[in-house]
Amino acid sequence: MKKINIALLGLGNVGRGVWTILKSNREEVMKRSGYEVNVSKILVRDIGKERGINVPKELLTTDFNDILKDDSIKIIIEVMGGMEPAREYMIKCMEKRKHIVTANKMLLATEGDELFKKADDMGLMFQYEASVAGGIPIIQGINESLTANKVEEMYGIINGTTNYILTKMELEGLNFEEALKGAQDMGYAEVDPTSDIEGYDAQYKLAILSSLAFGTKVDVNSVYREGITSVKSIDIKYAKEFGKVIKLLAIVKDRNGKVEMRVHPTMIPKNHPLANVYDSFNSILIKGNAVGDLMFYGRGAGELPTGSAVVSDMITILKNDVNSENYNHVVKNNLWDKKFRDIRGVESKYYIRIRVLDMPGVLGEVTSIFGEYDISLGAVIQKISKKSEKEVDLVLVTHTCREAQIINTIDDIYELKSVKKIKSIMRIEDFE
Amino acid sequence: MKKINIALLGLGNVGRGVWTILKSNREEVMKRSGYEVNVSKILVRDIGKERGINVPKELLTTDFNDILKDDSIKIIIEVMGGMEPAREYMIKCMEKRKHIVTANKMLLATEGDELFKKADDMGLMFQYEASVAGGIPIIQGINESLTANKVEEMYGIINGTTNYILTKMELEGLNFEEALKGAQDMGYAEVDPTSDIEGYDAQYKLAILSSLAFGTKVDVNSVYREGITSVKSIDIKYAKEFGKVIKLLAIVKDRNGKVEMRVHPTMIPKNHPLANVYDSFNSILIKGNAVGDLMFYGRGAGELPTGSAVVSDMITILKNDVNSENYNHVVKNNLWDKKFRDIRGVESKYYIRIRVLDMPGVLGEVTSIFGEYDISLGAVIQKISKKSEKEVDLVLVTHTCREAQIINTIDDIYELKSVKKIKSIMRIEDFE
What we know:
Oligomer: homodimer
Pathway (chains A, B): Amino-acid biosynthesis; L-threonine biosynthesis; L-threonine from L-aspartate: step 3/5; Amino-acid biosynthesis; L-methionine biosynthesis via de novo pathway; L-homoserine from L-aspartate: step 3/3
Strand content of chain A: 25-35%
Largest interface: A-B, 60 and 60 residues
Number of strands of chain A: 18
InterPro entries (chains A, B): ACT-like_dom_sf, ACT_dom, Asp/hSer_DH_NAD-bd, HDH, HDH_cat, HDH_CS, NAD(P)-bd_dom_sf
Family (chains A, B): Belongs to the homoserine dehydrogenase family.
Radius of gyration of chain A: 24 Å
Keywords (chains A, B): Amino-acid biosynthesis, Methionine biosynthesis, NADP, Oxidoreductase, Threonine biosynthesis
């Protein structure tokens, strides 16, 4: 049996998962890869830290150079996360001809270009399945299984924390704060939950997926982003009346070379498969012009699911003959030039909830402004507010229009004396 | 731009899809693969046949040697199907150092061993994503993305025709014959539908998936098989009363190295994702010991979805440098020795519908036999038959027991004078 030395950069959640899998599935890894895999060093910040797993102390080092300068180490598993020094370490390791497996979505979404290029220049393999949607093989799916397709649309639930929160709000009637607290208690949300609940995590992931699907560089800032902090229980209830549920959806559409990318709370039909993705599960639906609808569903986070992606990536490197220098596996992201569409150019249906004074003529005033901007309404519901009988909720659902039309309409509606507040504006996706 | 010549063996449904994709997605294929792909010959039986697509006549040949002896042809796309001469042609082409892409499930399920070995010996790539579940990348998923896992269970809806029929029966109340007729009218079922409705198609596919998931040779005959011809509308109705639906499920479970493989109509909970896979869609749920639950969903058949898998496979070959002779991509199916469990050793819950005479004591007689064989009952319903008031339907649902216990029980129940007929025995899967 051939032997191979690898090193881990980092021993947090994902690192622990990788270690556990390499131990518990030792025979699988050996037979599938053809190699006996030996973790020879692990870079950590604090050697003394209690980690809840049984890793021999002598493997741990706080000195990156111990790993960099060890020529027997052929594969680097980067699971430390963050921008620096992860980026610098990977670049240096590649310069020493070490293949890379990484789970680092932030780095890939922002500096992927430099990393891909270095791997390509050096003829190395650079694997990153774990960077998006944990154990779901969506990267492999796009990079290998869908290459015959023009990807037309992607819709993803790619943040488990927010999906868990929205699930609790939908099924158990919790409000956002209660559901967030529950997610924190379960360990699904961080103490500072900003990255998840404000949609940054999903934004990074969507930038990576779009870049791969369209073979083009994607600036993470061209992905429009809204989090779920403004989702109210009352909107979930109204959604239900329209046969819809609310999900934090990552959406990409290529409309004749103009690509829109956005992450925001979205009302989707209850009978759509994505509507039934609950708890911390992830799911991604891809529409290819040949394959049609293709959906992946699974665990988007967690030690073992993410570790599964990392270790499988490592096996892929080993199967491709780790000692060869002749690879063509690095994805090129300079195949196409795409134009990215600003959120104002997006077309969608909209759900709008407005608090108005309960007086004659208000409905007419409001709806006539929609008319002025050429927006057709699909439904209008007037709800009596519990808070005050002098104010009512006006819920409107539009037909498809441009976001710019909605922005202008809302501006004008705000000017009306009878309008107290625009309580909610949410995009609706019918997958038509 | 590098150029590559390929040839198609066959120009039926899948062949047409491949041709169409190579034309319509020419730019995608070129950029993703780095090659300009030229179809230089297509083997057909009848050059004059009208095919509904615009293929230049001069590409067509009825002589396999035109392709075999053309050394400029580096990749063979085998989409003729069937056992011979497809097997012979692929072997001969590999001896001439041509890489293979095939969609041939029957051949892979029965002679995959010989084909894999030949590819391995010759250092060639042998791709077969299209052989199972059309456009769904389940082969790649198992072979590349889940290699870090012990696969513990797989559950698949992998035959679109039967799923279409069962969908019509469930949602529109059609009986089997009506639904089959509809499937034939829609082109989903063949004039001779045996391979689909008797479960042979799913049996082949499950044999392939099991072989890959367990890295072992699988005799297709060790896959237990029942079709859907015995599924009655009344059983679908009763299933509904228990909160279940009926699907033709392909099931694999590895229980400590003892593997059971079976294809049969199965009652599954209505709220399970697989229960909501409708029409001709396919879906496969895999449980890995690291990744947890992972599900794939998409089009399991059709020109373009299957063509998508074939063309993506071809691109994978091109990306791996078609001229290299250094591959390690062929899956080994001799990694593990597995014991296969006979259907009598399977453990399951069962749904049993018995027609009995409506007389006192019958229920006691029947249920006491279950007791004799140590089978606990979860539910018993006595239904008045419409046909005759002297006979009633007795519907029983067991707790988990061995199939052997059920077989013995049924044998004894048949002996009872009060029992007219065992109308239905169906396995229940709760995914617990």
